[in-house]
Amino acid sequence: MAxxxxxxxxxxxxxxxxxxxxxxxxxxxxxxxxxxxxxxxVLAQWDGxxxxxxxxxxxVERIRQNPETPDMVYAMxxxxxxxxxxxxxxxxxxxxxxxxxxxxxxxxxxxxxxxRIADARVGSFEAGDAFLVGDSLLVAAGPRTDLATHDVLxxxxxxxxxxxxxxxxxxxxxxLSFCPLDETRAIVAPSAWDAEGWRTVQALVPDPLVITExxxxxxxxxxxxxxxxxxxxxxxxxxxxRALEAWGFDVELVDVSELHKxxxxxxxxxxxxxxxxxxxxxxxxxERWPTALxx
Length: 295
Description:
three-stranded mixed beta sheet, globular, alpha/beta
């Protein structure tokens, strides 16, 4: 690749096999309660996704799905992992809130420390709206995450937070419009954000692969990167695949179309367990005490 600076995370994931996946309600524009779900196909596609991620070189852990939480397959939203600390999501919709309790138990059993980022006083926060990008934690404010939680995140982790406003209802989580590829590049869909948000992303990502709204609707930004392998949903635009290959990435296309019925794709189904926010902590400390750190 032109830049040999792979992501420092993305080789260890938590996933949830969709034993009880269904579309019982509609909490995003992609969900249609009248569209039937092929349960056998859902499981086969999910199993194929796990195989692809492991083939790329990552390790996958599993959490058992609660029968009463049909969206639990979208594990990215459980929380943010920072070393041995997990900041759990406070979901916007009550249908998904039991997922945070299940995740809290799972992490606790493995010895992680857990905390709750948001409550009724500051609103909701969903982890699909946050990525470590360079020396900042990039966090969205929009349909699923309230701006007031950004200050809570900054204080909880001691990190620098960069905010981006999501204004597109169908691209309701940041992980539908933003996919970090390495330390300098990312797939980005500016149509999801306001003008100031796009400027914020440009400042953090020196070399973006810009996609259109229609390209974003293929869920191609909702991909997982393991080293130089991009695991991307089938149906991704040829232009995007070719651009990634020109940069030196290997692209593996995986059919998860049945799981798109819930409004999520590959990234939504994978919670990285190997993230560490030290870079964003250092930048925050440098802003507070520049003289001391320089000395």
